[in-house]
Amino acid sequence: MKLQRKNGLRATALGALAVSGALVLTACGSDNNTGTDAANGKKTGAASNVSCEGAKGQLLASGSSAQKNAMDLWVKNYMAACTGVEINYKASSSGEGIVAFNQGTVGFAGSDSALKPDEVAESKKVCKSGSGINLPMVGGPIAIGYNLPGVKDLVLDAPTIAKIFNDKIKNWNDPAIAKLNPKATLPDKPIQAFHRSEDSGTTQNLGKYLGKAAKADWAYEAEKKWPAPGGQAASGSSGVAAQVKQNEGAIGYFELSYASSQSIPTVAINTGAAAPVAASPESASKAIAAAKIKGTGKDLALDLDYATKAAGAYPIVLVTYEVVCDSGNKAETLPTVKSFLTYTSSEEGQKVLSEAGYAPIPAEINAKVRETVKGLS
Questions:
Q1: Do 113 and 71 share a domain, yes or no?
Q2: Strands 85-91 and 57-63
Q3: Are residue 328 and residue 280 in the same domain, yes or no?
Q4: CA-based diameter of the chain, in Å?
């Protein structure tokens, strides 16, 4: 992978999303246009605001596939700035990331759901003098993508989405869908609904939305494991997106960046506001901005309003947390964890998100994230 200068990173950011690549990232080489500043170990010409002080060696991390495209860009930018440092993020699932973190095999984990009390208790075995905490780092809309040639600007509401994924609405020309799309010519075609096969924070956040906005049609607890009957399973957000892309009549849920990179059309949501709301970084930011911090101490877990009817606010959102020890981090990886997360929570690091189809964390919350990262020990 050829090292890019800072002024080339933004221009290639969206193109990088189309590259699924390997799940584990390796160190980048350098080109002839970059040198090394011996004083701080930073490659000249790389991202200017990355502090490489103390960072060294290899840092393993894993978890949420929802943030994979953001993490790819962050890792590329960071390793372009810091010599001798390798960040390996394995995009698996939120559940697998938390398990790896609590087994002590990764420096941090990515999760689309905050740690549960039992997971916090388990983390104390690894965080010898503290416990695992949630740092909101990536925001964004969970897009409902579909494959229905000839049908543009599809609108659905929460009850209809619930019935589709609950195997109650089985055909695209169902009266409930037709009522929401009076100008569309809906085909007499079976719906193929795809969901995640493994435990997923994306699944849990979709469940939270349906549980709040479609209580009568979605009676399941919001868990990481897919709860409803019917449908077909695929692995990871990339797997669900691929199935929707390949199968006419398909519908599925995944982060907007996966839809954008593969030109998959997405559903606008009728929330009860004056107009349906399309998935975008801006519309997701409006919903996330209303979030409240529900965590205590250094934990910054958020309480999202999934039933919002605010104009222009897209309600199906998630926040991906980086899970770390507040204290008791491993001495050999702590400097690199702090250095990397300082970059991802920086103004420049957050700007990468909007360029990649994600929603930056609101400034007031992100300021607390930066302060917490600074105090990790």
A1: yes
A2: parallel
A3: no
A4: 68
